[in-house]
Design a protein that fits this description.
Elements (H helix, E strand, L loop, with lengths): L6 E3 L5 E3 L3 E2 L5 H13 L4 E4 L6 H11 L7 E4 L2 H6 L1
Parallel strand pairs: 3-4, 4-5
Antiparallel strand pairs: 1-2
Helix pairs in contact: 1-2
């Protein structure tokens, strides 16, 4: 398990983990298993989007992990947000 994940400071001053798991093109089942393994390894950032259609799997993995609320970051962007980056 990673003791301290490196972070980056966002423009609004909040910290975000610099390393995360992307779940694009994963089914709910695969995303759940992958997210569970990543969380167990110390990851605290899961990058997902509603267009991936696997948010239920990611949410299940976060709930199952029992990590304290606020310790996990589920990064979610809509298509509109991505087009502005």
């Amino acid at each position: 398990m990673i003791d301290a994940s490196p972070t980056v400071v966002l423009a609004d001053g909040r910290l975000m983990p610099a390393i995360g798991l992307g779940v694009w093109q994963m089914t709910d089942e695969v995303a759940s298993g992958s997210a569970s393994a990543a969380i167990a390894a110390g990851y605290r950032l899961i990058d997902t989007a509603s267009m991936y259609a696997n948010e239920r799997g990611v949410g299940a993995a976060i709930r199952k992990s029992e990590i304290p609320r606020g310790e996990a970051v589920r990064h979610h962007q809509s298509l509109e947000q991505r087009s502005r980056l």
